[in-house]
Amino acid sequence: MEKFDFNDILIKPSITSDITSRRYINLYTKGKSLPLITAPMDTVIDENNIELFNSLKIVTCLPRNTKFNRNAINSFSLKEFNNITFFDSDAKYLIDIANGHMSTLLETVKTFKNAHPNTYLMVGNVANPETYRLLSEAGADAVRVGIGNGNGCSTTVHTGIGFPMASLIKECYDISCELDKPAKIVADGGMKNYSDIIKALALGADYVMVGSLFNKAIESCGDNYIFKHIKISNWLATYLYKFKLPIYKKFRGMSTKEVQIKWGKEKLTTSEGVVRVRKVEYSLSQWVNNFKDYLSSAMSYSNAENLDQFIGQPEIIKVSDNAYLRFKK
Fold this sequence. Notes:
Radius of gyration: 20 Å
CATH class of the largest domain: Alpha Beta
Strand content: 15-25%
Distance between the termini: 30 Å
Strand order of the largest sheet: 2-9-8-7-6-5-4-3
Number of domains: 2
Structural class: alpha/beta
Number of strands: 14
Oligomer: single chain
CATH superfamily of the largest domain: Aldolase class I
Order of helices and strands: EEHEEHEHEHEHHEHEHEEHEHEHHEH
């Protein structure tokens, strides 16, 4: 069966909508956050800006080798996770693994959730809906879906491994409806604009993990540059940005050799990520305010007063390339 991605679809409005004002719409999850999670990337989030993300009601997920924080999801490699001797039952954990299809991950999830049924565990990434099913049945609380789609990832380009994100979300959502305790679906990678995120939610993602778009905020933790190559401090970058001077941020995938060196790996592997310098486009609060407005608008068209009525619920229609080009501005 042919698969599809975000540019191939639109959200069909409800025949009628009972919503008379967007102010009646609840954009927040039962955990009182927006349906957004920071990608665990070291050019997005660190100890210095985590409180800003939290204050804007974005779920925070820290990169590996970052100080443990009970107010965030803490990332570990599979080996690191299996070497943990004490788990904080009130904390949240991510097994951050490129190939979430490994049987060793599945066994780790089963063992961990049998021993710690009430401790939150996110795993991934996967790009096969049936793997989502298995990890759900093993007890995972959330599964990151998407391989090779991320703006900092080149896995699919080089290996040919992948699954179009929109179809992947939809097929995982359909499976989740069959399960007694489905894992939350975390759409991870490649969101290029607000509508991609909104479509991901409409298709059935419980959360969308965002890296590239957050990196382009002045408050992201990527290194700052002026004139693209002169490195400057966070303070100076913020000061100059207020006067509308062009500021640039480093953005890199977490499998790049730069990150491998930072983590102290003795044997470097071939990179499946990219390193770029990109122009800052907004403050984080500006981006979040826009997102909230666009999401509430989409929900009002869909007659959805809350996320439960929106996630996986709207009718999705496929469009031709010409139809896409017509509304692409």
